[in-house]
Every structure is written in C-alpha cells, then in structure tokens.
Amino acid sequence: MSRAAYQVRPPITRTPLRSEVRRLLLGEIVRGDLAPSEGINEAELSTRLGVSRTPLREAMLGLTQEGFLTATPGRGFSVRALRRSDAEEIYPILWTLEGAALRASWPLPPSRLRQLDQANRRLEAARADASVALARDREWHALLLAGCPNRMLLSMIENLKDHAARYEEAFMRNSGQVITSVTQHREIQAAIRRGDLERALGLLEKNWRVSLDFLGPWLEATTSP
Amino acid sequence: MSRAAYQVRPPITRTPLRSEVRRLLLGEIVRGDLAPSEGINEAELSTRLGVSRTPLREAMLGLTQEGFLTATPGRGFSVRALRRSDAEEIYPILWTLEGAALRASWPLPPSRLRQLDQANRRLEAARADASVALARDREWHALLLAGCPNRMLLSMIENLKDHAARYEEAFMRNSGQVITSVTQHREIQAAIRRGDLERALGLLEKNWRVSLDFLGPWLEATTSP
DNA sequence: TCGGGGCATTTTGTATACAAAATACGAAAC
DNA sequence: GTTTCGTATTTTGTATACAAAATGCCCCGA
After folding, report:
1. Is the peptide bond before A110 cis (omega within 30 degrees of 0)?
2. Which residue lies nearest D16, CA-to-C1' measured?
3. Taking 90 as the threshold, does the pLDDT of residue B186 lie above it?
4. Distance between CA atoms of B219 and B170, rounded to whole angstroms?
5. B176 touches chain A (CB under 8 A)
6. Which of B125, B116, B117, B38 is nearest to B75 (CA)?
7. Which of B6, B19, B90, B152 to probe the A interface (max A CBs under 10 A)?
8. CA distance B13 to chain A (A)
9. Are the beta carbons of A95 and A200 closer than 8 angstroms?
10. Strand C nucleotides where any atom sits below 7 Å of a protein CB
C-alpha cells in the first residue's frame, strides 16, 4: 500500500494522561472548585484523579508555566491567587492580541456577520445562568477570530481567555452580578458591517475594559493586592 | 526570630534540575546545536546531561508547550523545524506585543534614552560577530521596555524573542549575512526623543519586519513550508 | 504562657522499574 | 527482487521507590 494513505491521519487518537489531567484541573481551577487556599497535595490529588504522581506533576508544571498555578521549590504547587495586579496585566494583553487577530481576519466575510449575530442572540438567551453566559460569550469571540490564519496567536488568546474566565467566573459566583456584553457585541458587529475596522478595535478593547472595571474594585475589596 | 525577617527572601536559591536542563536545552536549540533532524532519544540525552529522564522530560514538556519542541504521542520529542509559516506567525505577535509594552512604558525617562544610545553603540561595535550582535540587539530591546510594569507581557515577549533568536541565529549561521539594526534603532531613539510614540511604534514594527523579510525567502529556499 | 529545639512524619524532587507501544530486522512468500 | 508478516529490541508513558528537605509535634526551659 502506498505510504501516502497512512499519512492522511492517525486513525485513533492516543491521548496522554497528562492532557486529560490538565483538562480536568484547568476546569476545576476556572470554575473555582480548586481554590487558591492551601498548597496542593500531590499524593492526595493523584489518588482522587486515579493516576500516578508522574502525569499529575506533568500537568501541574504545564499549568504553572501558563500562570494558573505557582510552584515553590521544595514546597510544591498551589493555585495562583486572584489578584487585581494580575488582572490588570492579563486584560490589556488580551485586548491587544484579540485586536491583532481581528486585524489579521479582516475583512470578515458576510457569513461571519450572520454567525456572530446568531451567537449573540444565543448569548442574550442565556443571560440567566452566569456560567452558560460566559461560555456563549466566549463562542462569540471565537467566531469573531475564526478567520485569523495565525494559529499561534489564536492559541495565546485562548490561554488568556482561560485566565479571564477564571476571574469572571469567580466574580459572578461571588458577587452575584452578571457582566453582559450583548449590546457591546451588537455595536462591534455594526462597526464590522460598516467596514470600520478601527472603530471595531476600539469597541473590542472597551468590551474587555468593562469586564476589568468590574473586576478591579471587587478584587480590591476581597483579596490581597 | 521574627517571621518577617525570613519572608524577605529565601537566602539560598534552590534550583530544580528541570530548570537547569531547560536552560541548557533551550540554549542548544537556539544556537542550533540540537538540530530538528531526528527525534530526541530520552535515555541518551539524559545520560549526556547527567540527570534522569524525569527532569529531562519535565523540561522537554515545557519547551514543547512553548513551541520549541514537538511531541508526538508514543513517539516522543523532536526539535521543531524552522518554518516560514511559523516565522510569519511569530514576528507579528512579537511586534504587536513589543509595541504594547512600549506604549505601557511611555513616556520614557531621559536616562533611558542615554542607556539606549549606549547599548546601540555597543551593538554597533559588535557587528562582526553575529551571535554577539544578536545578544546586543536583544539588550537594546530589553532596555527599551525596561519601564513596562506588565510583567506577564514582558515574559511573553522574552519567550517570543527566544523563538526569533533561533530563526535569526540559524539564518546568520547558514547564510553568512548579518542583519543589522543600528540605524533603525537610532531612528526609533529619535522618535522617542521627539515624544512621537506612534512613529516609534511604526519604526519598531518595521525593525522586526526587516528581519522577517530576510528570513522569509531564506526559509522558503532551505526548508519545507 | 510562650518560644525554641530536636525528633518523627509528611511531602517533594529525582531516580528507577515496568508494561505497552513503536521500531527494526529478518525470513518467507510471491 | 520486492513485499509482507512475525518476532526481537528499543523507546516511550506511567507507576513506584527512595533520599532529602520541609512540616508538624512534643517536650523542655524561661
């Protein structure tokens, strides 16, 4: 048989344990199930997850590199605390990169505008449940950048959005408030429809800045720096 | 003794093996000593480095996450090939983020301008040796962003510069050409001195774009996509 | 009552062990 | 001569073992 037929795609997907563990842990961190309280006990967590310490540590080292955990030599890992100073670093990077990605996606095809509008309606419908709303909001943003050819840029943005999601999830859970972006999304869509990239970029930045403006005072009040 | 006295700083720095291994490997990758040819043999490399496979794998997983290595499940690690398509993703992110960092450092203190000028003279003096020139160039850029308060942004930029350094190191070694930025740095300094941020940002982007314009055709000629 | 020092225990960081999958190799079939 | 199948070997992914460091605890002394 010709070699090319095999090169198409590895038929079965072998998923390393570390990836699964990573997914689980990141979910727990973002949802706040794994709190920044005390240090993580590796033996305990590994038995809870049903794996050995090796893939667990691999996953945690990865999450440390991405800033979700902190590692102190000799003292192990702990969930990174939510800090106003960190949020004030994350969000500007996020709007800068998302702006760059939108620029790289320009001009958006008309079909994309229809998809965005649909996604925004789904977001509007989900306003009641904060977690669902967050997921829908994220879908809208993903759609916005769907045409961006820069894969590395997109993956960096996804990572930053995981951070943002952690902050917003905690804020909504803790304060009961829901940050809603439906109107802002509409404005952004309108700017895109008019072909006004610069205006869309400004509104996009503003959209993130609103979230940060909610977070700042709340973080100031509840946590350390 | 009061607890506060200890909290100042852990007096001795405990460095995990994985960090040391990471440093060594990254150096070898950037300098091209570890080529993208074939897969990496863990047992072999671990004995060469004098550590066990555990910290070696930890280091390699980290470098994989950063994009310096690729990991294929069941088949281990290999140095990521130099690709034009990758360079065309990396550089735009780099100039976008460095621009954002410069904006966040604005306005630069007059002392910074003097330091930049000195650094640029050191770069000019080192034009002969490509590797030294690259290091000096990097020092100039680091100085440019020295006032940026966004630590996460700076660390992302450093990571991207490691990637850029790998590409430029390979280009210079392979083609014999040296990409020189002395004149462009002077122009950027002049714009800063005039207080013209937007002009400085444009020149900064152009500075990186020149490197990419050297790399593109060379990568097209020598490697795969 | 509070603080300090020494010992027991826990926990981490690294090394090693082991099973399963991937690769290499060779013989047999065509 | 080429290809295909089966087996031996290597290599990876994960589990476990072990040493050193960190933590907790208890007793003692002030």
Report:
1. no
2. A52
3. yes
4. 10
5. no
6. B38
7. B152
8. 9
9. no
10. 4, 11-17, 21-23
Residues of chain B positioned with their CB less than 8 A from the CB of A16: 73
| Residue where the block lists tokens 């510069």 | B161
pLDDT(A75) > 50: yes
Task: With cut-offs at 50, 70 and 90, classify the pLDDT of residue A180.
Answer: confident
Instruction: Supply the pLDDT for residue A12.
Output: 61
Determine if the pTM surpasses 0.85.
yes
3-state secondary structure A96-121: HHHHHHHHHHCCCCHHHHHHHHHHHH
Helix axes B197-222, B182-193, angle to 10 degrees: 160
Cα gap A93→B99, rounded to integer Å = 11
Give the C-alpha separation, B218 to A161, whole Å: 35
> Residue A7: helix, strand or coil by DSSP?
helix
Instruction: Assess contact for A224 and A85: CB atoms under 8 A.
Output: no
- Tell which residue, A100, A119, A101, has the closest CA to residue A111: A119
Dist CA B149 CA B135 (whole Å): 23
* Shortest Cα distance, chain A CAs vs residue B59, angstroms: 9
